[in-house]
Amino acid sequence: MKILISNASPDPIYEQISKQIKNQIIAGDLNEGDPLPSIRKLAQELQISVITTKRAYEQLVSEGFIDTVGGKGCFVAMQNKELLREKRMKTVEEMLSEAVSEAKKLGIHLNELREMLELLYHEDE
Amino acid sequence: MANVIEIENLSKEYDDFFLDNVSFVLPEGFIMGLIGPNGAGKTTIIKLIMNLILRKSGTIKLFGLDNREHEVEVKSRIGFVYDNPNYYEHLNLKQIKNIIAPFYPTWDEAEFKRLVEKFNLPMKKILKKFSRGMVMKAAIAIALSHHADLILMDEPTSGLDPVFRRELLDLLYQLLQDEKKSILFSTHITSDLERIADYVTLIINGKIIFSRNKDEVLENYALVKGGNDLLNAETRKLFTGIRRNEYGFEAITSNLQETKKQFGDQLVYDKASLEDIMYHANLRENHV
Questions:
Q1: From the CA of B90, how many Å to the nearest CA of chain A?
Q2: Cα–Cα distance measured from residue B150 to residue B155, given in angstroms and rounded to the nearest whole number
Q3: What does the pLDDT look like over A3-48, one tens digit per residue?
Q4: How far apart are CA A74 and CA A67, in angstroms?
Q5: Looking at the DSSP assignment, which residues form a beta bridge with residue B19?
Q6: pTM for the whole thing?
Q7: Which of B66, B149, B194, B204 lies 20 to 30 Å from B275, alpha-carbon distance?
Q8: Where are the domains of chain B?
Q9: Record: contact B215-A47, CB cut-off 8 A
Q10: Domain B3-215 belongs to what topology?
Q11: Is A51 in contact with B195 (Cβ distance < 8 A)?
């Protein structure tokens, strides 16, 4: 597991943590059943407060990415592959819609945008 | 979740200082920073918790017990680090340890030895010849050697270099691995607490400005800057500790969302550090 915290980031620290753990679960770097460090251990390692770490974990629990097993700690939850795919699709959609609205501001035509997309899509083939 | 410290309506009067109806709680397993400028009342609160001075009114409960009725019992569970440890200067650490250890039924000689080694403290040098950092380390080693459940530290980092201050934080993190241990840490060097503190209590002129979850404070407070034309009786209510100069003003808002709603991009918003908040809150308390 890798977590890097930036003080310059506009995102609050708890969100930086939950986002990074989430991305590692989605990317398959963290697998179902993998144990996560205890809240207090992670706070010590990252030199942040226990409450901040707790909040990051609580968010991951509420979004179904991790489970808390009483007395044993936190583990990567069983992931619903369909659901994960859907979540990631939604992210793609959001990013695309951002690109579209930016393009509209600049007066870029749909055809032009399509060309850009195709170029980008085939870039690393 | 139990509270380790519960202070209610605590007051204390000196000729030139008034601790005014102070209340706050510290839940078990967390660390609270007690911050404020010099002379705000931080040490007075800590002395009252230790029952070293008489109060005017109010109650203090430690581990759920009244700190005066159960004085011996609660004190044996506290590790106390005072900002200017008055150890006998002509004694060495070994002699001092021999005086202090018998007072604590839970004294752990092995733990004391471990800490002394870790801190590189000489056992046979008289304390007069210790540097300030060494005296502080000795006080911390003693405070941590009787398995205290609550560590009370009054300005443990003042006058110490950043290297030692980081080491102390590492030590506090180690301590907090045990979720039964709690820490109250007073300081005017707020950067020490910016990361580690779970709760922050700000005190100015003997009054509590706030006592809350640090993350909430840092999310709701912001440093704002804007043109002087934005200042009027109405808008002043949103700003704390306004510092004007010829070209604009700087202040703190405790309600970032509301301020953004009202002013949008007429203002510049920066993250507020605990130091910014303390500085501007102090401006308001002393100039309005």
A1: 38
A2: 16
A3: 999 988 888 999 999 999 998 988 888 988 999 999 999 999 999 9
A4: 6
A5: B12
A6: 0.85
A7: B149
A8: 3-215, 222-271
A9: no
A10: Rossmann fold (3.40.50)
A11: no
